[in-house]
Design goal:
The complex is a heterodimer of chains A (364) and B (228).
Chain A (H helix, E strand, L loop, with lengths): L1 H11 L1 H37 L5 E4 L13 E2 L1 H5 L7 E11 L6 E5 L1 H8 L4 E4 L7 E5 H7 L6 E4 L2 E9 L7 E4 H7 L5 E2 L1 E6 L5 H11 L4 E4 H7 L8 H30 L1 H9 L4 H37 L10 H25 L3 H6 L2
Parallel strand pairs in A: 4-9, 6-8
Antiparallel strand pairs in A: 1-11, 1-12, 2-10, 3-4, 3-11, 5-8, 6-9, 7-8
Chain B lengths: L5 E14 L2 E14 L3 E5 L6 H8 L7 E6 L2 E2 L5 H10 L1 E4 L11 H11 L8 H10 L14 H13 L5 E5 L7 H18 L2 E6 L2 H4 L4 E6 L2 E5 L1
Parallel strand pairs in B: 3-8, 3-9, 6-7, 7-8
Antiparallel strand pairs in B: 1-2, 1-4, 4-5, 9-10
Helix pairs in contact in B: 3-5, 5-6
The chains are: A alpha+beta (364), B alpha/beta (228).
Chain lengths: 364, 228
């Protein structure tokens, strides 16, 4: 009977129900989209790191294991030191630079050495660099930016000629010749990090240990350990940002439901009086308000999930950022919303439960 | 009926409402006995205290002083929660404005009273007979806005008696009805009293309506002035 009362109440004011669901849905979409973006970026970075084909990555002192820009390392260390270490078959230095936004970087690399390490890139169109100002992009970037072989694209305030489009999942979305990038970023002879390929992956731990002893200030990680670090908690500010958005979501859910239920209680004062005259307890009245708030929260969650597909489509179509639908977060977003809705129902529910039956029955 | 037990016993009942800093006495020492199975009309002008008496006997508000026993329970000693429990099965209300839940069908309006009282959703077979007596069996799946005033009041009566209360309290039950429907509702109340032995307390302004009861109590200025 509680469910029936709630359902009929929701049906009785469809516009209020729809608007409440919509506003709650927007905050659910916000949470799911943010989580989808973070997961998409992390999975994309993980895939590309795994596609490098290296066993170990070395970063200079004072840099985070996960980062995008900067070239503080002397390039001579690649051949002069790392290539000569036991079990190291190949050492490749790269320079990473951020372009467009924090979500998109490009990498300068010696393409022939990188091909030896990774097994080579698979080209969808065109091929490797033919000149110093050539650039190759992966199919993801090419689709997002409608870039074709032969086009000229502006990156880092310079025009680059697209010589090839390769199948994504290796190193970066955009790859340019290392010397050109070093020159354009005033980092001649400098690199961001070094990838090492070993004669046998089984030697990874031993080589990491040996390198750490010799270069105690450097960040030296197996690629397996590096990709394990690719999670929300290790991306600077991301976990905090998600927490803030979740907090905002709870507050929005709380405010929307609180306002909606407060209005509902005012509108239904007489009905509450009727229920009380029939012997409805304060708990019964509170339960009806609470279940109705939960129903609004649940409806908003479902609507938010549906709208998150729309957000996913929009981002995928118009913004060059990898985004995913993260199904495990559906119930989490639902719980967050229902928590906000429960809190929001508390004051209106208690107010309704405390109504004096005679005054409520006299309410016009 | 003269041998029947008193189902309502009111002794020196007083009720004072506090309006801002002003005390407004609504009842000033009311004594009243109602026998089980009696149909008692309470008549009086506005402000005479009859609705306050109705609310106290119905457990909607506590008395300021004095004693009230309904079906053996002392209302003056009851907490708010106790009075709430008492309303579920001991009293049934019929109001001037019908007071049906507008979002529910007539059937669900009746069912909600049973639900709150903790009883099965489906009324007993005797109640089906009552529905036929009330002439609303074919109107149960309509919402109040699709029912006439007379039909709404009959649904309200059905809801009030679905849990077989000890007393039925009717507050101006014909106040919003035309003559024909008023007559029908009053005859239903009398039928319920005569056929089922339902105790009925009815408040009214109308002497003709009051005449349907076995006895009439006259109230004025918070006191009972006459019993006929």
């Amino acid at each position: 009977m509680t469910a029936k009362l709630v359902w009929e109440n929701l049906k009785h004011r469809p516009m209020r129900t729809l608007l409440s669901n919509l506003v709650i849905g927007v905050q659910v979409t916000l949470i799911l989209t943010l989580v989808g973006l973070s997961h998409g970026m992390i999975d994309d970075a993980t895939r590309r790191a795994q596609g490098v084909g290296a066993d170990i990555v070395v970063r200079p002192p004072g840099t985070a294991a996960i980062g995008l820009s900067g070239a503080p390392l002397d390039q001579r260390i690649v051949d002069g030191f790392f290539a000569k270490q036991p079990h190291v078959q190949l050492a490749v230095g790269v320079e990473n630079q951020q372009v467009e936004s924090v979500f998109l970087g490009l990498t300068g690399v010696d393409l022939s050495k990188f091909s030896q390490m990774s097994g080579g890139l698979s080209y969808v169109a065109g091929g490797p660099f033919q000149g110093p100002n050539d650039v190759i992009v992966d199919d993801y970037y090419a689709n997002q930016h409608h870039v074709r072989v032969g086009d000229r694209i502006r990156l880092l305030n310079s025009l680059w000629h697209v010589s090839g489009v390769f199948q994504g999942g290796k190193l970066a979305h955009i790859i340019v010749p290392l010397p050109t990038l070093q020159e354009k970023t005033s980092a001649t002879g400098k690199i961001s990090l070094v990838y090492l390929k070993l004669d046998d992956p089984a030697n990874t731990d031993a080589v990491v240990k040996s390198l750490k002893e010799r270069l105690p200030d450097y960040s030296i990680l197996s690629m397996q350990d590096l990709t394990a670090l690719y999670n929300v908690n290790n991306i600077p500010l991301l976990s905090g940002f998600i927490a803030v958005v979740i907090g905002v979501g709870v507050v929005i859910g709380f405010l929307v439901v609180s306002l909606s239920m407060y209005m509902a209680v005012l509108q239904r004062t007489r009905e509450i009086g009727i229920l009380k005259s029939l012997g409805a307890s304060k708990g019964f009245i509170l339960r009806i308000i609470w279940v109705e708030a939960l129903a609004l929260g649940l409806g908003g969650t479902l609507l938010g999930i549906v709208m998150s597909f729309g957000a996913w489509w929009l981002i995928d179509a118009f913004v060059p950022i990898p985004v995913e639908i993260v199904i495990p977060w559906w119930p989490i977003a639902g719980i967050i919303t229902l928590a906000g809705a429960s809190l929001g129902a508390l004051y209106p529910g208690l107010r309704a439960a405390e109504h004096d039956p005679i005054e409520a029955l006299a309410y016009e | 009926m003269s041998d029947a037990r008193d189902i309502v016993e009111v002794r020196q009942l007083e009720k004072v409402y506090h309006v801002g800093k002003v005390d407004v006495p609504a009842l000033r020492g009311v004594d009243l006995n109602v026998k089980a199975g009696e149909f008692l009309s309470i008549i009086g002008p506005s402000g005479s205290g009859k609705s306050t008496l109705f609310h106290i006997i119905g457990g909607l508000t506590p008395p300021t002083s004095g004693g009230v026993r309904v079906d053996g329970s002392d209302l003056a000693a009851m907490s708010d929660a106790d009075r709430t429990r008492m309303r579920r099965r001991t009293v049934g209300f019929v109001f001037q404005k019908f007071n049906l839940l507008p979002n529910l069908t007539a059937r669900d309006n009746i069912a909600v009273a049973r639900h709150i009282a903790g009883m099965d959703r489906k009324p007993d077979p005797q109640f089906e007979e009552i529905l036929r007596l009330l002439g609303i069996a074919s109107r149960l799946d309509h919402k109040p806005n699709a029912l006439s005033g007379g039909e709404q009041q009959r649904i309200a009566i059905a809801r009030a008696i679905v849990n077989h209360p000890a007393i039925l309290l009717a507050d101006e039950p014909t106040g919003n009805l035309d003559t024909e429907n008023s007559k029908a509702v009053l005859e239903i109340l009398r039928d319920l009293n005569e056929r089922l032995g339902q105790t009925v307390l009815m408040i009214t302004h109308n002497p003709e309506a009051a005449a349907y009861g076995h006895h009439t109590v006259h109230m004025r200025d918070g006191r009972i002035t006459e019993r006929t």
